[in-house]
Write a structure and sequence with these properties.
single chain, 269 residues, alpha/beta, Rossmann fold, 8-stranded mixed β-sheet
Length: 269
C-alpha cells in the first residue's frame, strides 16, 4: 500500500529543532475540526492506507496520542506516526501509535494527512513555501497538510489546510469564554500570514470586519458568546466575506474562509 513503509531511520531529517513546547489537550480545537470537516474525513476514509503523521509533536507525545484517539472515531483502523527531528524526543510506541525521527521529508512515509502544529511558526516567513512543498511532495495521492499554531493552552488556534495544489482554507478557532474579540487571534496566525496583518492585506481586512460584525452582534451577548458569534458570522457573510457556515452546533467559535480570501497580496491564490 502507498503509505505502508516504515519510518526510515537512515533518512536525514529535513528541518531544524524547535522549542518543543506542548501540553495535554492543547490541540483539541483543531482535532475537533479535523474529525468534523467533510474534506478531511472524505480523504481519510477513501485512503487505501489511512496513515497520518503528526509532525513535530514536541517534548511530550500527548497531543499525538490524542489525535489518534479522535481520528479513530472517523476511521477505526487509522495509523498514526509521530515524527520528531530531535532524536531525544522520540519515545517508544504506545496505544497503537508509533514514534520515530523525521522532519519535512516525513521519514519517507506516504501519509494521507499531516498535522504540523507550532512548527513553522519558529521559522522565517520566507521558509514557509519550501517547507510546504517538501511536506506535500511526500504525502499520498489526495493527501492533506494542516499547518497551524496555537497558544500555550490551546485557547486560540489558527491553521491552513493544504493539498498538493496549494493552500485551500484558513480556519481560526477560539474558546468562546476567554477571547474578547476575533482579532485577538491575530497573534496566533500561521507563519504565512502573521506578518501580513497590516492595512492593505486581506487578512487584516477580514479580522477588522470580524471585529465590526462582533460589535454589531452585541445584542446577542446575553445568550452567550457562541450565539453572539453565530450572529456575527452571519453578518460577515452578508457583508460579502465567504465565511463558511456550519450546520452543526459548534463548541468553539470558528471562522473559516477559502485561502483566496486571505492570501497575501504578492502570493498566488
Amino acid at each position: 500500500m502507498a503509505g505502508s513503509a516504515k519510518p526510515d531511520q537512515l533518512t536525514k531529517p529535513v528541518g531544524t529543532i524547535t522549542r518543543g513546547t506542548t501540553g495535554v489537550n492543547r490541540l483539541r480545537r483543531s482535532d475537533r475540526w479535523l474529525i468534523n470537516d467533510d474534506l478531511v474525513c472524505a480523504r481519510l476514509c477513501a485512503a487505501p492506507d489511512p496513515l497520518v503523521v503528526d509532525l513535530g509533536y514536541g517534548a511530550s507525545p500527548w497531543t499525538t496520542l490524542e489525535l489518534a484517539t479522535r481520528l479513530r472515531t472517523v476511521r477505526a483502523d487509522v495509523r498514526v506516526v509521530g515524527l520528531e527531528i530531535d532524536p531525544e524526543r522520540v519515545v517508544p510506541g504506545r496505544d497503537g501509535v508509533t514514534f520515530a525521527r523525521g522532519g519535512f521529508e516525513l521519514a519517507r512515509l506516504r501519509p494521507v494527512l499531516v498535522r504540523a502544529f507550532n512548527v513553522l511558526r519558529q521559522y522565517p516567513e520566507s521558509a514557509v513555501p519550501d517547507a510546504w512543498a517538501t511536506i506535500l511532495s511526500g504525502v499520498a495521492e489526495g493527501g492533506l497538510l494542516v499547518d497551524g499554531t496555537c497558544d500555550e493552552l490551546g485557547r486560540r488556534c489558527a491553521w491552513v489546510l493544504l493539498d498538493r495544489s496549494g493552500p485551500l482554507s484558513l480556519t481560526l478557532a477560539w474558546d468562546p469564554f476567554t477571547v474578547e474579540r476575533p482579532s485577538d487571534i491575530a497573534e496566533r496566525l500561521p507563519k504565512a500570514l502573521i506578518h501580513r496583518n497590516i492595512p492593505g492585506e486581506p487578512i487584516h481586512a477580514l479580522l477588522a470586519a470580524a471585529d465590526r460584525a462582533w460589535a454589531r452582534a452585541a445584542p446577542h451577548a446575553p445568550f452567550g458568546p457562541r450565539v453572539r458569534w453565530q450572529a456575527a458570522a452571519k453578518s460577515l457573510r452578508q457583508d460579502g466575506f465567504p465565511v463558511r457556515a456550519y450546520r452543526r452546533r459548534m463548541r468553539d467559535c470558528v471562522l473559516s474562509v477559502p485561502w483566496s480570501a486571505v492570501a497575501p497580496n504578492n502570493a498566488p491564490t
